[in-house]
Amino acid sequence: MKIIKGTSVSKGIAFGYLDIRSTLAPDAQKTNIQDTDREVKRFFKASADAFNHLQTLYEKTLSTAGEDHAQIFSIQQMMLQDGSYVNSIVKIITEEKVCAEYAVKRVAATFQEKFLDMEDEMIRSKSYDIKDISSHIIYFLGNDKKLPKAKDATDTIIVSDSFVPSSIVDLNLSSASAAIAASGLKKSHFAILARKFEIPTIINAGVFDRSLDGKFAAVNGFTGEIIVEPDDKTIAVLKKRQSRYDTIKGIMHKIFKNSSETDKKPQIKLIAVDLDGTIISNATEFSNKTIEALNTAAEQGIIVAVCTGRVYGEIPEAIRNIEGVRYFITSNGSSIITNTGNIIYSNTIEKNIASDSLDILSEYDVMIDLYINGNGYMQSSDIEKLEHYNVTDGFDKVLKVSRIMKDDIMRFYREESPALEKINLFFADKRERKEAIYRIGRLEPSPKIVYSMEHNLEITSSTCSKGQGLNFLSNLLEVHMSEVMAIGDSNNDVSMLKLAGLSVAMGNSPKYVKDTVDYVTDTCENDGAAKAIKKYALR
Q: Rg of the chain's alpha carbons, rounded to an integer?
C-alpha cells in the first residue's frame, strides 16, 4: 500500500484504476512557412471552430450545472477574442513566418506566465483558461478538425499534469470516478466545476510514477490522499466514511430542492421574444395584446429585445416602433441593433464559407435571399416564382415589399463581395434541401444551419445563433442569464431557449421545441406570448 499526498479541491471518496496521462494539451512543433496570409486565415478559422466548441460546452454545462458555472465558457469565449491575445499570435505568424500552431503555443505560454506571476489566485487561475482555449485552437488547426470525445471512464481515476475547465466537463460526461493533477489551483475554474459535478479531485499530487498506471487506488477527497493498492481495512474505513457523506449530501440536496420549489418566480430583467410564430402569425398579422404586454414589461423596468431570424429591414414598422423594445437581435443573432438604429454587435458569415456555400447552392433549384447590412437582397426573376419555391403563409407578401432586387443575385455577390449576415433559402424540392444541408455542413469551419419553415434553410456564421446573440446582449447589459425570459416557437429559437433562465415555447411549436423549455403557453393566434409574459414576468 502506497500513500501519495496532495491538496483536495473536491470532497468525496472514490475507487478505481489509475489512468496516467502525460498531458491534455496537443503538441505544436515549429514549422517555417512562406504564405503568412494563408496561415493567418488558418488561425482565424480554427479560432472560429474553438469559439463554436466553447458555445457547445456552455450549453452542456448550462443543462448540467446551471448558468453560474456555464458562464466559465462565456469568459473563455471573451478571452479567445481578446485583442492582445489574437494580435500577438498574428504578429508571430507574420513576422517570424512560423506555423499557426507554434504561434498559439508561444503566446499561450507567455500569457500563462504573466497570469501565474499575479498575487491574486483568481487571476492566476486564468492561466488554465488560456491553456484550455489555446489547446482548442491547436486541435482545430490539426487535420482531424475534431476534438476527441469523452470515452467511458467508469471505475477510472484520471491522472494528469494539470486539468482545464473543458476536461472536467469530459470527465463528468465519461463518468470518471475521480481526478488527480500534478499541479493546480484551488480557485481555478476546473476546481469550481469539479466541486459542482461532485467529482472527488486532488491537485498538487506531483508527477506519478508510470509504473502505477492501471493499479487499483482510492482517492480520499477529504484529506487529499491517494492510496494505491489499499488493504481491506482501509477500503472498509473509506467506504463507511463515503456512506455517511452520501447520507448528508442526500439530506442537503432534499432541503435545497424543497427550498427551490417554494421560491417565488425569478425576477425577470430581460425578455427576448421571437417574431414569426410568436408575435406574428401568417408572416404579417401581429398580436396587439403581446405588444401591450411588452410595453407593460418595459414600464416595469424590464428590458425587451426582439430576437428574430428576419433581417432588420423586414421587421414590420409597427414592431420596430414598439416603445418598449430597446434591442433587435436580427438574422438569427448575426446582428444586434438598438431602437435608435445603432449596430452594437455583428457576426457575419466567414468569406470562404459564404463563397463555398453559394457555389454549392448554384447546383440546386433554390431561391437565394442574402441578408446584408440590415437589408434583404434577392433575384428579381424569383419574385414571380415564389409559389414554386414554397414561399407561403404570407411570407411572399413580406418579400415583395421588403427586398432589394438584383438581376443576377450570384453575379451581384461575386462583384460586390458584401459581408453576409445570413443566407436565407427556399427550396423547390425538400430532398435537395436535405442534400444541401449535408454538403454545406461539411465546410470548415462548419456554419450554423437552421430552419423556421418547411422548405427554408438559414445559414449563418459558425459562431452565430440566437443564443449567442442573446448571451452577448445579457453580458453587455450585466443581466444574469437566470434573469432572462425567452419565448419562441421554432428550430432557430432552440439555442436561446436553452440558455434562458426561464424558457417558454408557443403552443404552435413542434414537439422537439416544447421538450426544450420550462413552460408551454398558448398559440400565437391566441396571444400565447402575451399570456406567458403576464404570468411569468410582470409584477
A: 26
Taking each helix axis from N to C terminus, what angle separates 100-116 and 126-141, rounded to the nearest 10 degrees? 170
Rounded Cα distance, 506 and 378, in Å = 30
Tell me the β-bridge partners of 469. none
pLDDT of residue 68: 79
The per-residue pLDDT for range 138-193, each reduced to its tens digit, is 988 886 555 555 567 778 999 998 888 888 888 887 888 999 999 999 889 999 99
Would you state the pLDDT for residue 262? 45
39 three-class SS: helix
Q: Tell me how far apart the alpha carbons of residues 470 and 496 are, in angstroms, rounded to a whole number.
A: 7
How confident is the model at residue 261, as a pLDDT?
46
Confidence (pLDDT) at 248: 74
Q: Rounded CA gap, 447 and 440, in Å?
A: 8
Cell of 80: 479567445
Cell of 230: 489499499
Domains of the chain and CATH, by start: 2-23+149-240 (3.50.30.10), 36-141 (1.10.274.10), 270-346+465-536 (3.40.50.1000), 351-460 (3.30.1240.10)
pTM score of the predicted model: 0.55
Which among 371, 348, 385, 342 has a CA at the least distance from the CA of 476?
342
Half-sphere CA count of 537, side-chain side, radius 13 A? 36
Amino acid symbol at 460: T
Q: pLDDT at position 70, please?
A: 85
Residue 490 neighbours by CB distance under 10 Å: 22
CA 432, CA 426: separation in Å to the nearest integer? 11
Q: CA 487, CA 62: separation in Å to the nearest integer? A: 18
How does pLDDT run across 367-384, given as a tens digit for each residue? 999 999 999 999 999 999
The dihedral of CA 11, 17, 23, 26: what is its sign? negative
CA distance 61 to 68: 9
SS3 readout for 268-318 = CCEEEECCECCCEECCCEECHHHHHHHHHHHHCCCEEEEECCCCHHHCCHH
CA quadruple 181, 185, 186, 192: dihedral sign: negative
Strands (E), 139-261: 156-160, 178-181, 201-203, 216-220, 225-228
DSSP state of 118: -
Which residue ranges in the chain fall short of pLDDT 50? 24, 260-264
pLDDT tens digit sequence for 65-120: 877 788 888 888 888 888 889 999 999 999 999 999 999 999 999 999 988 888 87
